[in-house]
Amino acid sequence: MERTFIMIKPDGIQRRIMGEVISRIENKGFKILRAKLFKPSKSLIEEHYQEHREKEFFHELIDYISGESVMIMEVEGESAVEVMRLMIGNKDPKLAAPGTIRGDFSNEKTQNVIHGSDSIENANREISLWF
Ligand code: GTP
User: Fold this and answer.
1) Beta carbons within 8 Å of 18's beta carbon, 6+ residues apart
2) Which residue among 5, 91, 107 is best mutated to probe the pocket of ligand 1, counting the most ligand atoms within 8 A of its Cβ?
3) The pTM is what?
């Protein structure tokens, strides 16, 4: 069965919609295999977002997560990577459809509630990195 890495980002924790997000994941039929609520180190966040190191929003992205609590999850189910990306919605607020997590809970480019791996390869990398 396919596995993906999910992170509820600091705005999701602070706004107390963690339960809502977890409910959506479980209602879809996915199984949460492992979960942890903690404050990741800056180096862990930088490693996670290494592909964006050169982007102009990189520091904003790292500062937003640094020193704050996130919830990380290993989620298992049929086509978990692709289906979770569909449930999460587009990162551009103007393209995040209502009914998706971002479409329903965020209108921001950086503070967008949740992260989900974008490929099976990245899911394996991120699960090994975070757990
Ligand atoms: P993640 O699931 O968090 O990886 O988001 P994504 O795969 O939908 O987007 P991407 O990997 O391209 O970007 C990672 C994160 O960087 C996004 O979720 C945003 O938090 C932030 N981000 C991406 N693009 C922009 C941008 O153009 N401007 C700003 N301010 N933040 C961005």
Assistant:
1) 8, 12, 71
2) 91
3) 0.95
